[in-house]
Specification:
Strands 2-1-10-9-11-12-13-14-15 form a nine-stranded mixed sheet, sandwiched between helices. Helix 3 crosses helix 4 (75-85) and helix 10 (248-257) packs across helix 11 (278-288). Helix 4 (75-85) links the parallel strand 3 (65-69) and strand 4 (89-92). It folds into two domains: 11-381, Rossmann fold; 388-479, 2-Layer Sandwich (GMP Synthetase, Chain A, domain 3), CATH 3.30.300. Helix content is 27%, strand content 27%. It starts with 10 loop residues before the first helix and ends in a 7-residue tail after the last helix. By secondary structure, the chain is α/β, with parallel strands linked by helices.
Length: 486
C-alpha cells in the first residue's frame, strides 16, 4: 500500500518541492532547433508564487474557477500551478476549441477569470480576461494555500457519454496518487530527463511530461512549438533523454522517417492515449533497442493499468494494475476502480446523477472492456459504449453528430471510429442528405464548430442510418462498412 496523502496539502507546492532541495537544478528544457530555453526549479517556483499573489491581489478568492485559454507555451503550466498555489481552481482547455465550444463550457463553469493566450478563441462570457503577458508583471510571493487534500484542485473537460463535454473535478490528492505510476509505469528516477512529445496544453503532457518529473525532482524536456515528429530523435539525443513519452501516432510518424534511431541515453519509451499496436512496439524496439511500456487510463483517474521494466506485459496485453490500485473485472469484462483510489475524481461538475450512475456500489465503472489473464495481466478490448479515440483524445460521437446536424442539408448523422490501416483510426461520419455534399465543404463546416481532433476525416452519404431493435443507430454496422459507394 502507498502512504496516504499528507494533510494539510497543496498540489502545486508538492509538485515544486524540489525547489527547496535543488533550487538550481534544471526543471524544464524547451527544446527546439534554435537554442534551448532552460528553467531552474527556483525560477519556476518564484513565478508560480508571484502569479498566485497576483491573482489573489485581483480579488479572486480560494475556490474561484480560472479558465485557461493558453497555447503551447510555458505560460500554461505556470498559470495552472499558480492558480492551484493560490487555492484557486484552474480549468485547462484545449486551444483548438472553437468559440461556440468554449462558450458552452464557460456558461456551465462560471469562471471568475479567463487567462488568455495570443490568438486562442475566447468564450462569449462576462468574466474578465487577463492576457498571458500580464503573468510576468506580477510581483511578490504568496504562500501556498494549504488545506485538505480532498478539496477541489482543478477541473478538466472530457467528452461525456451524454454527448457534450463534461467537467471532471479532481482533488489536490490526485497528484499524490500519481506516485503509483512512478513504480508501476515510468520507473521514474530523480536523475531522469523525460522528453514528452506533446504540447504544454495537453493534459497527457501536463501530467506525465511536467507534474510527475517535477514532483520526482527530475528534468522535464518539452519540444518547442512547431517541432515535427521526425525531429524528436535528434532532440532525444541532444538533450540526453532517458525516458520518452508520446501517443502511439507519434511513434508511428517517427519510425516512418527513421529506420534506425540513435538515442544513447534512452532507457525506454512510454505510451498512452490509445491502444499501442504490437507491430509498432516491435518496430520501435528494432529501431532503438529499447522497449515501450503502455498504460491505460482515463480523465477520471489518469492511468491505473500499465507495464514497466520490472514487469513487462505479455504479448497483446496492456499491463497490470499499478501497485496500490484496486481494480475489478466485472460481468462482461467491464473494468472498474474502487472508490477508495486517491486518484479517482470527486465527480462530474454540476452532474451528481451522472456521477452516481458511474458507480456500482463502491466500484467506479470505467466503460472499458478488458480480458484478465491467469497472472492478472489486463488486455484492453475496447469501449463498452460508443466513445471514439482521435489522436489520444476521447471524443463522443454525439458531439460530432450534433455539429453535423446544424448543416441545412443534413437530416441525420452518425460518427464512428474507422480503421484506415492496422493500428490507425480516424473519425468517419455517415450522413443523410438529398444529395452528396463536397467533402472539402463539410470539412470546412465542421472545422468552424469542432476542435480539429474532433473533426471527421471521412464523410459518407447514405440513404438511411441502420438501426437496432431499440431504434437506436447501429454503430457496429457502420464501423464495419468498407469505404466506397454506399
Amino acid at each position: 500500500m502507498h502512504a496516504p496523502c499528507p494533510s494539510p496539502f497543496n498540489m502545486a507546492a508538492y509538485v515544486l518541492g524540489a525547489a527547496e532541495k535543488t533550487p538550481d537544478k534544471t526543471a524544464l528544457v524547451i527544446a527546439g532547433a534554435a537554442k534551448a530555453q532552460r528553467w531552474r526549479y527556483a525560477e519556476i517556483r518564484a513565478h508560480v508564487a508571484a502569479i498566485a499573489g497576483g491573482l489573489l491581489a485581483r480579488g479572486l478568492q480560494p475556490g474561484d474557477r480560472v479558465l485557461l485559454r493558453l497555447g503551447n507555451t510555458v505560460e500554461f503550466p505556470l498559470a495552472y500551478l499558480g492558480a492551484i498555489w493560490a487555492g484557486l481552481v484552474p480549468v485547462p482547455t484545449s486551444a483548438a476549441l472553437t468559440v461556440p465550444e468554449i462558450t458552452a463550457i464557460a456558461a456551465e463553469l462560471a469562471p471568475a477569470l479567463v487567462i488568455a493566450g495570443k490568438d486562442v478563441p475566447l468564450p462569449e462570457h462576462p468574466a474578465p480576461v487577463l492576457p498571458e503577458a500580464a503573468l510576468y508583471d506580477m510581483q511578490g510571493e504568496a504562500p501556498p494555500q494549504m488545506g485538505s487534500p480532498d478539496r477541489l484542485a482543478y477541473i478538466i473537460y472530457t467528452s461525456g457519454t451524454s454527448g457534450r463535454p463534461r467537467g471532471v473535478m479532481h482533488a489536490h490528492r490526485a497528484v499524490w496518487a500519481r506516485r503509483m505510476m512512478w513504480e508501476g509505469w515510468y520507473d521514474l528516477r530523480e536523475e531522469d530527463r523525460l522528453l514528452h512529445a506533446g504540447a504544454f496544453n495537453w493534459t497527457y503532457t501536463l501530467g506525465t511530461g511536467l507534474m510527475d518529473p517535477w514532483a520526482r525532482g527530475a528534468t522535464a524536456v518539452i519540444p518547442a512549438p512547431g517541432t515535427e515528429p521526425r525531429q524528436l530523435p535528434l532532440l532525444m539525443a541532444r538533450h540526453d533523454a532517458t525516458l520518452f513519452a508520446a501517443a502511439p501516432g507519434v511513434y508511428r510518424q517517427m519510425l516512418r522517417h527513421h529506420e534506425r534511431l540513435s538515442t544513447p541515453k534512452l532507457r525506454h519509451g512510454l505510451s498512452a492515449g490509445e491502444k499501442l499496436p504490437d507491430a509498432l512496439r516491435e518496430a520501435w524496439n528494432s529501431a532503438t533497442g529499447t522497449e515501450v511500456y503502455e498504460a491505460l487510463g482515463m480523465s477520471e483517474c489518469s492511468t491505473y493499468i500499465s507495464a514497466n521494466p520490472a514487469r513487462p506485459a505479455p504479448e497483446g496485453a496492456t499491463g497490470y494494475p499499478q501497485p496500490g490500485r484496486r481494480i475489478r473485472v466485472g460481468q462482461g469484462g467491464e473494468l472498474a476502480i474502487h472508490r477508495s483510489d486517491p486518484g479517482l475524481m470527486l465527480g462530474y461538475l454540476n452532474a451528481p446523477e451522472e456521477t452516481a450512475a458511474r458507480y456500482d456500489g463502491d466500484w467506479f465503472l470505467t466503460g472499458d472492456t478488458v480480458a484478465e489473464g491467469p497472472d492478472g495481466a489486463i488486455t484492453y478490448l475496447g469501449r463498452n459504449d460508443d466513445m471514439m479515440n482521435a489522436g489520444g483524445y476521447r471524443v463522443s460521437p454525439l458531439e460530432v453528430e450534433a455539429a453535423l446536424l446544424t448543416h441545412p442539408q443534413i437530416s441525420a448523422a452518425a460518427a464512428v471510429e474507422h480503421e484506415v490501416k492496422p493500428g490507425t483510426t480516424v473519425i468517419r461520419c455517415f450522413y443523410v442528405a438529398p444529395e452528396g455534399i463536397d467533402d472539402a465543404a463539410l470539412s470546412t463546416f465542421t472545422a468552424a464548430r469542432l476542435a480539429r481532433y474532433k473533426c471527421p476525416r471521412i464523410f459518407t452519404r447514405v440513404e438511411a442510418l441502420p438501426a437496432n431493435a431499440n431504434g437506436k443507430i447501429n454503430r457496429s454496422v457502420l464501423r464495419n462498412r468498407p469505404l466506397g459507394p454506399a
